[in-house]
């Protein structure tokens, strides 16, 4: 939902930037996104990466205020886990699926309605209060640590069901 992310950014009051990582396979959608960026003069606020190497991705996580991940019906939401592991709060949508299993609303991130105005409000809250973002990010990483998400644990759990 890159379009929804850009629509939300257009409604923000803060000077926060949006970095979109991931290629859009739909040229019409990409044109719509570019049109909104131009219409709202956000050329300096939106940066799009079709692909980033792991090292660059880690740098993006390390230097962001929070992670915006608003898919529809995602199975797991690995981006959510990466954001939490990077001590960042995650903004997601009520219909995002898997990410909802990890985010505690207003504690480790925000669970928003899948509407630009509600997402923009959460973005502005994080942008306005760096200390709040840091605290939420710490809580996100702490929560992730309690979930015992490791390959060793995954294998152990899978072996329970092997015949």
Question: How would you characterize this protein structure?
Answer:
By secondary structure, the chain is mainly alpha-helical. Helices cover 48% and strands 11% of the residues. Helix 1 runs parallel beside helix 2 (27-39) and helix 4 packs across helix 6 (130-146). The longest helix is centred in the C-terminal third of the chain and has 17 residues, at 130-146. It is globular.
**Rg:** 16 Å
Order of helices and strands: HEHEHEHEEHHH
How much strand content do the residues show? Answer: 5-15%
| Major sheet strand order | 3-4-5
The major pleated sheet works out as:
3 strands, parallel
Shape field: globular
Q: Roughly what percent helix?
A: 40-55%
- Low-pLDDT regions: none
First-to-last CA distance: 41 Å
Class computed from helices, strands and strand pairing? mainly alpha
Number of helices: 7
How many β-strand runs?
5
Please, what is the average pLDDT?
92
């Amino acid at each position: 939902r890159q379009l929804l992310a850009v629509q939300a950014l257009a409604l923000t009051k803060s000077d926060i930037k949006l970095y979109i990582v991931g290629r859009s396979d739909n040229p019409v959608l990409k044109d719509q996104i570019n049109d909104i960026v131009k219409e709202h003069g956000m050329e300096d606020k939106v940066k799009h990466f079709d692909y980033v190497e792991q090292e660059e991705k880690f740098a993006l996580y390390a230097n962001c205020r929070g992670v915006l991940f608003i898919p529809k019906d995602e199975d797991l939401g690995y981006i959510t886990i990466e954001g939490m592991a990077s001590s960042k709060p995650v903004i997601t949508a009520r219909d995002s699926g898997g990410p909802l299993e990890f985010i505690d609303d207003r504690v480790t991130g925000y669970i928003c309605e899948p509407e630009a105005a509600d997402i923009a409000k959460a973005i502005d809250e994080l942008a306005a209060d760096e200390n709040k973002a840091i605290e939420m990010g710490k809580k996100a990483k702490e929560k992730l640590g309690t979930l015992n998400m490791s390959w060793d644990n995954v294998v152990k759990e899978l072996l329970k069901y092997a015949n």
